[in-house]
Specification:
The protein has 19 helices and 14 strands. A hairpin with a 6-residue loop joins strand 4 and strand 5. The chain is elongated and about 85 Å long.
């Protein structure tokens, strides 16, 4: 059996291990289906386009964003290289991490002697929908919580066996946890601090040599984290560590984690969580006073309680001293291991009847199995991808030279680009202007879209389809706007240039003020790099500050992987909803920020006026 114990402290029976093995395979198979069928999310697609697709992962060359969870980005890139860009391929590294997470939780649970407590603890974490769904996402949280769980398990084995290999494994697991998600730095610091204190108090008495070796490994492990600490401060300095809030640990952390874990939050849940935390503090202090030592802390149960109290303390201190936001939902997900673990530990140390209280944790597996549809998300809806919506748009007929125009909210832009890339980039790019643009041929409206202009949607558009999983409604204009061609401009060919900017069109705006325009470009492009991380920029400018008063773009690498001189391989356009009074010129140009080599064989720019009907 894969869970066959190597320690007398492991209490799962052979029969229980067999049940665990069967449960694991059921859950893992379900996870594969979920990863393949659940619509991709906006943040996953940011990882795909910025890092997985481009292969540019390490700073400073990579796109600066807290979304770049390095190990996840790296593994996603290679998964794409090997298996393509399907949802399952993007999510495969996190899917493959689940067996290790299951293993670590199962081994931890086996340390509880009472069967009800150990099963309640195990099931609450391996069948917690909030955690489970991150193993079906290309986000890095599944990888990271796996390595945190493995590190806790390795520390437990270190305390049981006092063997150096478990300390080394702990250091390795912690490094991978942080490389998967910078949030894990807090927990890595707490674990390394725990190990340092333990070595100073325990190993020092046994052997000076062993103490020296252990301290050296711990210090080297800590030193290896400094690059992640430095990068965290760099992100904070430029304002990219935006997730979370300063509302306080109760409103920011406890509330959001409870909402995602239990599906709701109220004062009773809040008081219960806070009460269990303070009970853990009391239990820890009482055991230390009773034993007049830290002996209890250096046990499995003591470790879990230490991690819970230490995590909460660290979060509060970081918020007050470093002005770091309190973590919310996913960035605080790791706390569930320590909270449920501490809860189980407290129950196991009390009267026998207390074990029945652990049944409260079984709410989570019951909630998990209540929605067996792998395409459904129990925790997330906004920003999800819908294949069927895109297919419906592909089926629409029109006689315009360029693809249909589409207006979407920000979260849907990346899902649209993903579908377009996967189907040969034959559809239009999303309008990046303020949503909704009622001049667009197509509008994708999410349930959260409640701006006043939405009332006009039902006058000017027909509702074509509503996706049952995402709630997105596809609207098609009852009458496409009349398009009048204003001008056609030849784009000058160029061979093997590394120019950062290359102008396609620059026109005076005075005769176009107040008009709705469409700028289309068709050209034959040969780019040396794959993917070609450049874009066509579209601007309205004036000489006085601010110079740029409107900006939209067509990102080449979000549409096709390579441009190798195929005839007319660029055939896209962008809406200008309105030419503003302040505009003096309209610009249409190629921006090549990496200054890589490209050639333009031929090309034309088309400028259209769209006649508004409202």
């Amino acid at each position: 059996m894969i869970f066959n114990p190597t320690s007398s402290n492991f209490h799962f029976t052979i029969k229980e291990q067999t049940i665990g093995l069967v449960l694991f395979f059921i859950l893992w198979i379900f996870l594969f289906f979920k990863a393949a069928l659940m619509g991709l999310f906006h943040d996953e697609l940011l990882t795909f386009f910025y890092y997985g697709h481009s292969g540019v992962i390490l700073p400073p060359e990579a796109h600066w964003d807290a979304n770049n969870h390095f190990l996840n980005s790296y593994l996603t890139h290679w998964s794409i290289e090997l298996f393509g860009s399907s949802p399952l391929a993007l999510r495969l590294p996190n899917v493959l991490a689940y067996p290790f997470y299951f293993f670590a939780i199962f081994r931890m649970a086996g340390r509880f002697k009472d069967s009800l407590i150990r099963w309640s603890f195990a099931l609450s974490l391996i069948m917690c929908g909030f955690i489970f769904e991150y193993f079906a996402m290309c986000r890095g949280y599944g990888l990271s919580i796996t390595f945190v769980a493995l590190a806790i398990w390795a520390v437990i084995r270190l305390m049981e066996t006092d063997r150096l290999k478990w300390l080394i494994l702990t250091a390795v697991f912690l490094w991978f946890a942080v490389a998967s998600n910078l949030t894990a730095l807090i927990y890595a610091g707490l674990i390394l601090g725990f190990l340092f204190i333990r070595s100073a108090l325990v190993d020092y008495k046994k052997s000076i040599k062993k103490f020296g070796v252990y301290i050296l490994v711990i210090l080297l492990s800590g030193a290896s984290m400094l690059i992640f600490v430095y990068w965290s401060f760099q992100l904070k300095e430029v304002g990219l560590l935006v997730h979370g809030s300063m509302l306080g640990i109760y409103d920011s952390t406890i509330k959001t984690v409870s909402e995602h874990t239990f599906g709701t939050f109220n004062d009773l849940i809040g008081v219960t969580v806070v009460g269990i935390f303070f009970l853990a503090v009391v239990v820890l202090i009482a055991r230390i006073i009773k034993e007049r030592s830290l002996k209890f802390v250096f046990t499995f149960k003591g470790l879990l309680i230490y991690m819970l109290i230490g995590s909460a303390t660290a979060l509060i201190l970081m918020a007050h001293i470093l002005e770091v936001n309190y973590p919310e939902d996913r960035t605080a997900m790791y706390l569930l291991i320590f909270f449920f673990g501490s809860f189980a530990a407290i129950l196991s140390m009390g009267p026998k009847w207390l074990k029945y209280v652990s049944c409260l944790l079984l709410v989570l597996p019951l909630k998990f199995i209540s929605v067996p549809d792998p395409a459904h998300s129990q925790n997330f809806d906004a920003g999800r991808h819908s294949d069927r919506i895109f297919e419906k748009v592909q089926e629409m007929e029109h006689d315009f030279k360029f693809p249909l125009t589409v207006s979407v909210r920000g979260f849907q832009q990346m899902t649209w680009y993903y579908s377009n890339l996967r189907t040969g980039a034959k559809m239009g790019i999303p309008c990046h202007a303020e949503f909704p643009q009622l001049v667009a041929d197509i509008i994708l409206k999410e349930p959260i879209d409640t701006v006043p202009e939405n009332e006009m949607i039902y006058t000017l558009y027909d509702s074509v389809y509503n996706d049952p999983y995402t709630g997105i409604t596809l609207f098609k204009r009852k009458q496409f706007l009349e398009r009048n061609l204003i001008s056609v401009t030849d784009i000058q060919p160029v061979e093997n240039t590394k120019a950062e900017y290359y102008t396609f069109l620059r026109a005076e705006a005075d005769s176009l003020i107040g008009k709705t325009l469409y700028l289309g470009v068709e050209l034959t492009l040969d780019a040396e790099t794959v993917p070609f991380r450049s874009r066509v920029g579209l601007t309205q400018d004036r000489e006085e500050e601010p110079k740029n008063i409107f900006y939209d773009f067509i990102q080449f690498d979000w549409l096709k992987t390579s441009y190798k001189g195929e005839d007319n391989n660029v055939h896209y356009g962008a809406l200008i909803p309105e030419v503003y009074d302040e505009a003096e010129t309209i610009g249409f140009y190629l921006w090549n920020p990496d200054t890589t080599t490209f050639s333009i064989r031929n090309g034309k720019c088309y400028l259209y006026e769209l006649k508004r009907d409202f």
